[in-house]
Amino acid sequence: MATKRHSKTWEQQAKYYGVENIAEYMVETFLNGNISTFRELYKELKPAGRKLFISWLFHMEIPTAEIEKIILATF
């Protein structure tokens, strides 16, 4: 039985999922409509990684409305 992943860094998550940037992967997952998968990815990050992700969103070229939807999906 697979165990749940918790408290992982960005680097650990990127390596585990085979992506270069876990934050970009998470945003793509959300925008593709996989909200539950996005929430799982978010919950797997350490608290510091979660804060970094939210900060990272504001530096991306994503419309403000989409950023708001992404942030609300983290709850």
Q: Could you explain the architecture of this structure?
A:
- The chain is an all-alpha fold and 75 residues long.
- 65% of the residues lie in helices and 0% in strands.
- It contains five helices and no strands.
- The protein has helices at 10-17, 22-31, 35-44, 47-57, 64-73.
- Helix 2 (22-31) runs antiparallel to helix 3.
- The radius of gyration is 12 Å and the shape is globular.
- 17% of the residues are buried.
- The model has no long low-confidence stretch (mean pLDDT 85).
Q: Describe the largest sheet.
A: none
Which percent range fits the helix content?
Answer: 55-70%
Work out the strand percent.
under 5%
- End-to-end separation in angstroms reads 27 Å
Query: Total helix count?
Result: 5
SSE class: mainly alpha
Unreliable parts: none
- Output mean pLDDT: 85
3D shape: globular
The beta-strand count equals: 0
Order of helices and strands: HHHHH
Write down the Rg: 12 Å
In brief:
Helix content is 65%, strand content 0%. It is mainly α and 75 residues long. It starts with 9 loop residues before the first helix and ends with a helix.
